[in-house]
Design goal:
alpha/beta, 2,3-Dihydroxybiphenyl 1,2-Dioxygenase, domain 1, 2 domains, about 25% helix
């Protein structure tokens, strides 16, 4: 097998409209296209997709439970110019901030927040 490139990532969400509101209006991503249970957002060289839990359950042939937010399996990370300014703006919008911005030993300043389904979202600013 030879994997060439990451084409897209799919987040399983409870309510598509609520997630679109968060990712498009709050975070500012651009909607590529959507259907009743699926939406694709344009994010640089890749795509971020949102698929309802109900529809993914039908695709897999079983009922899916919501993930436990105390046991996250992944995070989504976005580069930004100024982590502190972005976190302050998101806090004003009522977004759930998990951690304040902090300089990390790997050369970035990062902060974590949660999307409406509890997925971890990292904002990262390169320090050099």
């Amino acid at each position: 097998m030879q994997l060439r490139t990451l084409d897209y990532t799919v987040l399983i969400v409870e309510e598509l409209e609520r997630s679109l509101e968060f990712y498009c209006r709050v975070l500012g991503l651009r909607l590529g296209h959507r259907t009743t249970h699926y939406a694709q957002l344009v994010v640089g060289t890749t795509r971020l997709s949102l698929y309802t839990r109900e529809a993914m359950g039908r695709t897999l042939g079983r009922t899916l439970r919501a993930p436990d937010e105390d046991a996250p399996g992944f995070e989504i990370a976005f580069l930004v110019e100024d982590v502190d300014a972005e976190i302050d703006a998101l806090r004003e919008l009522g977004v759930r901030i998990e951690t304040p911005a902090e300089d990390r030993f790997w050369g970035q300043r990062t902060a974590y927040l949660r999307d409406p389904d509890g997925h971890l979202v990292e904002l990262a600013q390169n320090l050099s």
